[in-house]
Amino acid sequence: MSDRDGPAIPARQFLAFSAVGTVGFLVDAVTLHLVMSHLDAGLYGGRVISYLVAASSTWALNRRFTFRAQRSINRTGEWGRFLAANAMGGLVNYATYAVLATFHATVAAQPVIGVAAGSVAGLLFNFTASRYVVFRDRP
Predict the structure, then answer these.
(1) DSSP state of 139
(2) pTM (2 d.p.)
(3) What is the mean pLDDT of residues 3-20?
(4) Neighbour count for residue 112 (Cβ, 10 Å)
């Protein structure tokens, strides 16, 4: 990437990252349904399985499409960094929701506002962590 590419590259990457996240949501939801109905996994065990399948899918898709030029030769380390970054993004999402719901009466009355704000905060965190920590430029 050159300096002349400027913010266009991050904008395209952000849109691709968001699209991959949408696919990840679908993979997560379908996997959860399947493991709960066919493997007799409960709500929590099933969710662990569906999260790992979805996060692994989004890692592979982001590696292939969103951050192709920045991917690492060490796939295992990259995958681990991606899982950790997304777990932190989940905490950012939840913390944003919790703070808003606790300190703003409007959000407490309409929690979907907090969910939306948390989702945006988590998305921004995960994109930034993916771009600069997980898929950082390689020599």
Answers:
(1) -
(2) 0.82
(3) 78
(4) 8
